[in-house]
Amino acid sequence: MYKAPRGTSDILSEEQAYWRYIEAKAVDLSRLYGYQRLDTPVFEDAGLFARSIGDNTDIVTKEMYTFEDRSGNLLALRPEGTAPVCRAYLEHGMSNLPQPVKLYYLAAIFRYERPQAGRYRQHYQFGFEAIGESDPALDAEVIDTAWQFFGSLGIKQLSLYINSIGCKGCRPAYLDALKQHYSTRTSKLCEDCKTRLGKNPLRLLDCKQVSCQDAAVSAPKGADYLCAECGAHFAAVQKYLHALNLPFQINNRLVRGLDYYTKTVFEIQPPGEGAQSALGGGGRYDDLIEELGGNPTPAIGFASGMERVVLNLKRQEVSVPGLPKPDVFIAYLGDEAKLEAVKLASDLRQNGIAVALATGVRSLKSQLRQADSLDNKQVVIIGEEEIKRGTVTLRNMVTKEQQVVSQAMLGETLKQSHVREKNG
RNA sequence: GUGAGCGUAGCCCAGUGGUCUAAGGCGUCAGGUUGUGGCCCUGAAGAUCGAGGGUUCAAAUCCCUCCGCUCACCCCA
User: Fold this and answer.
1) What is the pLDDT of residues A245-289, one digit of tens each?
2) What positions of strand B are covered by protein, i.e. any atom < 7 Å from a CB?
3) Is the separation of the CB atoms in A291 and A52 below 8 Å?
4) Is A317 exposed, middle or buried (0-12, 13-18, 19+ CB in 10 A)?
5) What is the DSSP letter of A131?
6) A44 belongs to a structural domain
7) Containing domain of residue A401, as a range?
8) Is A23 (CB) below 7 Å from strand B?
9) DSSP code of A275?
10) Is the CB atom of residue A330 positioned under 7 angstroms from any atom of strand B?
């Protein structure tokens, strides 16, 4: 038997209610904040990701699904959403549009990782990017958008962490200071951190090992190394966040895993522990567009993992709207009635009424059981008597009331009761 | 990539060497008379006990290998 590949899963109908709910909120939020949808290909030139995410990041070195197609092009399943959006921005000359250009996506993301709670090899992200504007008010707006997204979903007790990791001008000095600080106490560091020291010193700050945390407490703080511009930018972002009443906390150990981030970074976390805590995260990437061959263009974005959102909706027992059900179930008795039922079902459907039609040869009892298990509120019964008179029997499964309705009037009657149900 | 736990019908699971020709519950299907559901009752279908190898007179049960799932590390959404 074939199985879905490791780290992937089918989203079955019981789950779909959550997904539709999240998508609807995402689409509505995008409308409110002025984002247009952008769908990019599932695969891209592998180089796009190596260039943008960073050659030495885990994503590029060991997590990408890279493959050669039949003409020898080196492609990769997208391991994140921002780079493709930037590529599209450049490819379609969007720098000629009024800035910022605001785009959102709901897309599958692929990373070859060991699966665990909230982490998959194929997962979906809702993300949005605002490109072409450096105003710190935009940082605050993007953070607000992310915050409102979770708020509108009904997920509570979230934490919002922000930090500034500086720009290419001031960050090197900070990294040097960090390296210097840690290199005098390598004996106390865990093995992972020893390699991190050479590869990505920022990561040392959020290591969970006790001895490493001791070293982190006394480590130089990023805020002290920000240049005048980055410092002012960060201060302004906070000013706007205050104005928006967002309950943010500065976390000077907040570091993001992708190389392209500059200045503002932020993350939203659900309550409780659990390894994959981030529900979503984002930040500024002021150098990325230029790195991809465009003019210097500031930008900021955010992405959240849909599976983690679903997980948290379930944990917090948020009730989501159910999936649509048939408006009516049609049961029939005998071959002649079945023929009428088939025609009737088609007519009703063409009138916009969702119909579940009994199948096969079943007793009326069995058909009603089926209707009940499908949670149908209305059942049409058609048998010999009804055919003779050109009528149907309409049974309300909740009240058990039955009425005889002419076949011609059935559609209208059903629509009316549908409206009543909605209003009632 | 590292570590730990686990793999018995669609789902939840009992069974820890012979009584297993594998139990129960949910779900599915049928029936409980002639055209009426939800409760209840009866019955049926559904399992190469994750795969392969080994130990043994005998393996779902013990051992090995592999695969998969779950959780954690790493990393990230």
Assistant:
1) 999 999 888 888 788 999 999 999 998 756 667 899 999 999 999
2) 1-3, 27-32, 35-38, 68-77
3) yes
4) exposed
5) E
6) yes
7) 328-415
8) no
9) S
10) no
